[in-house]
Write a structure and sequence with these properties.
This protein has about 475 residues and is of the alpha/beta class. About 35% of the residues lie in helices and about 20% in strands.
Length: about 475
């Protein structure tokens, strides 16, 4: 193992692989680390049962990585990153430590689910969590599933369930038909994705799945059949219609998601400057044209810098990899510009669709304001909307102050699940998302045991003080 690579890439999705491959073309000694058992990220997740289908983009990326000189470290959980560029992780062999010259953060996104009564009921899954079941485990969430929320994952998950032999009881989409039609010009910039999406919709129609537009899940109740999903009509801002008629659907599972948020814990721990952009998914690192952050030697690429999709992420990764090579004097200015210019042009073109989808997935004000007082918002610590409001009433005016008063964000997920919603609740009363800020990240970045942290030892490794003089 090379514990002092020139470049350490954190995350082996499209952005991370793009960065690693680009850097190694200029002979940059590169290591890539990911907690998954293989490369590809969430979008190209590798199944446990090997696929026989050839030509899949994920397989091509994984093969390109395998054929390259990049050192790969999979099944590794990163738990610490320091501003002196020391990175610590845990894998099956124990503790791992790296001291790279450069770092590319390509850690993707976190799923957002806006709380509603019953969202913690067994049988309720996140959309992204469902894709993990479908892609890596080849497992259905249930025999009869309602798919709900916003964005392109609705069709992707519904198609995956149908293709896997399951039944989709209904699709509940908070967007209206008009919003999807308005997205068509942007989607044309990615014809491959557009064809794939139309294929999904065609299969969904063939299965006679009802699509209920401009509705949101109001509540989930347990029933004899499993779950009762209550959906209500909403306006374009997510507010329930005063005279709207609710719809009740019986199922044994619900797959729901309200978009994605960029994963920025590592770039924030490193002290990089961030800015809030609701249409990009939330807080994102400030970057220059070469994917450099405001911290010297730290770069970022992919959906962790703003939701734009897999194609754009791969291009951003390539730009970051070439920039690392340039900053290490492996490329001169002319060669660097020759490599970057076409990538930047392609990135501008393919990002249109991703930005449009991110805008559609952004939380609508009514979804946040109508969260009931007794609804759990922070599921790790069982903190309700009423407790959050009480803390604000008592003077909590930013998200970290509220965290210390209520324990929101102190559980095992460290606020990854509830953070965006909690910040929106505080911001609605205290002056906007920029003012209330974001969680201050802490280590360990992931849950780990003391045994994992300490590693194996013998009595010979225990420091024993010398005997005191008589």
């Amino acid at each position: 193992m090379n514990d002092r690579p020139e470049l350490l890439v954190l995350g082996a999705g499209p952005a991370g692989i793009g960065a690693a491959l680009a850097a190694t073309k200029s002979d940059v000694k590169t290591t890539i680390v990911d907690r998954a058992p293989d490369g590809g990220g969430q979008v190209y997740r590798s199944p446990i049962v090997p696929q026989t289908t050839s030509g899949e983009e994920g397989n091509r990326l994984r093969q390109a990585l395998a054929d390259s000189p990049v050192e790969t470290v999979f099944d590794c959980r990163l738990w610490s990153i320091r501003r002196d560029f020391r990175i610590d992780g845990i894998d099956s062999r124990g503790a791992r430590t790296w001291h790279p010259k450069k770092i590319v953060a390509a850690l993707g996104t976190t799923e957002r689910v806006i709380p509603f009564p019953g969202w913690t009921t067994p049988g309720v899954y996140g959309l992204a969590a469902t894709t993990i079941l479908l892609k890596s485990q080849l497992t259905l969430p249930g025999k009869n599933t309602v798919v709900a929320g916003s964005g392109p994952l609705l069709a992707a998950v519904a198609y995956g369930i149908i293709a896997g032999g399951g039944k989709v009881a209904a699709i509940i989409d908070i967007a209206g038909r008009g919003e999807w039609l308005a997205s068509a010009p942007a989607l044309i910039s990615r014809p491959g994705d557009l064809r794939r999406g139309l294929n999904w919709l065609n299969r969904i129609r063939q299965a006679k799945v009802p699509i209920i537009y401009r509705h949101a899940v109001k509540a989930v109740r347990e029933s004899e059949q499993g779950l009762e999903i209550i959906a209500e009509p909403v306006d374009r801002y997510g507010h329930g219609l005063a005279n709207g008629k609710t719809t009740s659907i019986s199922s044994d599972s619900l797959s729901i998601g309200n978009g994605l948020t960029p994963a920025t814990e590592l770039t924030r721990l490193m002290g990089a400057k961030h800015r809030f952009d609701a249409n990009a998914g939330g807080w994102i690192p400030s970057l220059d044209g070469g994917q450099r952050t405001t911290v010297d030697g730290l770069y970022a690429a992919g959906d962790g810098t703003g939701i734009t999709g897999a194609d754009a992420s791969f291009l951003e990764g390539q730009i970051a990899g070439h920039t690392v090579a340039y900053d290490l004097d492996r490329l001169d200015r002319a060669e660097y510009n020759r490599l970057i210019s076409p990538l930047a042009a392609d990135l501008k073109r393919v990002s249109r669709a991703g930005r449009r989808m991110a805008k559609m997935m952004a939380p609508r004000p009514g979804q946040i304001s109508t969260i009931a007082a007794d609804t759990i918002v922070c599921r790790c610590e069982d903190i309700t909307r009423a407790e959050i409001d009480a803390a604000i009433d008592s003077g909590a005016s930013d998200i970290n102050q509220l965290k210390s008063w209520t324990r929101c964000g102190m559980g095992p997920c460290q606020g990854k699940t509830c953070g965006d919603v909690v910040a929106s609740l505080v911001a609605a009363r205290c002056g906007g998302r920029e003012k209330v800020g974001s969680w201050s990240p802490r280590i360990p970045l992931t849950a780990l045991t003391m045994d994992e942290l300490a590693g194996d030892f013998t009595y010979e490794t225990i420091p024993i003080p010398k005997a005191a003089p008589l």
